[in-house]
Write a structure and sequence with these properties.
Layout lengths: L1 H28 L9 E2 L6 E2 L1 H7 L6 H10 L8 E3 L4 E3 L1 H8 L5 H10 L2 E2 L1
Antiparallel strand pairs: 1-2, 3-4, 3-5
Helix pairs in contact: 4-5
Amino acid sequence: SLAEKRRQEEEARQAKRDAARQRRQQDCNTGSCKGDARKLDPEDGRAYSIQQLISKYRDIYSEREVLRYWEEECLENRRVRVDPDDNRVYTYEELRSKYTPAFSDAEIKAYWEEDCQPA
């Protein structure tokens, strides 16, 4: 039946997610964990590591639910970076607007490249 097929598809997707989680855990156990990888949380637009996101939602969602959210909803965007001043995510243009006229374009560019981390 259609309901049975959907249930099987969901179980298959969940098995893939569980396998990915186990691979990540194994990577962490062997020292190649990308624990500093950050993604944008669509709820507030801020960048978080997976551990930060788990902590943020600890009282609301299970770790499994947060991991699913991280994999399926949180955004990887190489064109944005995190400003260490306020831990918010900006495009270069947004960062430039934030710091102009207090800083020169050259200073803003250097800050973007050297201090702001990819989200």
